[in-house]
Structures are given as structure tokens and as C-alpha cells.
Specification:
This protein is an alpha/beta fold. It is built from three helices and seven strands; from the N terminus they run ββαβββαβαβ. The strands form two sheets. It has a five-stranded mixed sheet, with helices on one face. Strands 1-2 form a two-stranded antiparallel ribbon.
């Protein structure tokens, strides 16, 4: 569509102004860039600290992992691969409880492999032993 004014021919402006579109896209990109790390990190949880701990009344088997990643059943050193056999078979009706103590410097991989060995023995009730907090 052409217009003629005083001898010049002008064409109609048929282009879309993309400046507002670019502004909106850049704002959305900025929002997604800021919120993506927050969504990936998960929810932070403040774990409660206890002043007292419940004393165990019954005797249970205790598995200990020391700083050197050595595994002990009660007070005797044991190979992690022999742990399921040493714990023995568990009947379906029996609710066996095993206490798992680990040094705080033990990596999670070693801790998880010991838990897996205990579960291979058929024991699903594993209690993790912790220390009560000391307030200064």
C-alpha cells in the first residue's frame, strides 16, 4: 500500500516493533536464571537438636564404623562382605533392630554400603546412634 504526498511515495509501516518482546524475553530469562539454582538445591531443613536422648532398654546388635572405615560387629572386627552372614537370617515375624554407629568423618558411601549389607541380612529396622548436643 503506497501513499503519495507532494510527489514522494511512502510505504505503510508493516513491521512489528520487537523491542517490547525482547524486553519481556530478557526479563523472563533473568527470572529463570535466578530461580533455577534455588529449585535444584532443594529445601533446607533445620534439624532439631535434642538435650536428652532415650536410653535403650533392650540389648541389640551394634555395628560400628571407625575413622579408618573399619567395620565392627559388637567389638569384633568384621569384613563388610561377611556382615550379612554374621548377622544371620531373619524371620519375617521377628523385628530385629540393629544400631549403627559411625564416626563423623566417615564418608556417606561407606555408611551406605554398611546399611546395604545389613539390609541384605533381612534387617530393615536400623537405628543410627547419635550424640546429644552440648550447649555452651
Amino acid at each position: 500500500m503506497a501513499f503519495s504526498t507532494r510527489g514522494r511515495t511512502q510505504t505503510a509501516l508493516a513491521d512489528i516493533n520487537i523491542t517490547p518482546l525482547v524486553d519481556v524475553v530478557l526479563v523472563l530469562l533473568l527470572i529463570f536464571m535466578l530461580t533455577a539454582p534455588v529449585l535444584q538445591s532443594g529445601i533446607e531443613v533445620a534439624v532439631p537438636q535434642t538435650r536428652t536422648i532415650a536410653q535403650a532398654v533392650e540389648e541389640h546388635e551394634v555395628i560400628t564404623i571407625d575413622k579408618s572405615r573399619n567395620v565392627y560387629l559388637q567389638d569384633k572386627p568384621i569384613n563388610i562382605h561377611d556382615l550379612p552372614a554374621a548377622l544371620g537370617p531373619t524371620t519375617k515375624d521377628a523385628k530385629r533392630v540393629v544400631y549403627l554407629r559411625a564416626d563423623q568423618s566417615v564418608p556417606f558411601g561407606a555408611f551406605a554400603s554398611v546399611m546395604d549389607a545389613v539390609k541384605q541380612a533381612g534387617i530393615t529396622n536400623i537405628s543410627i546412634v547419635t550424640q546429644p548436643t552440648t550447649e555452651k
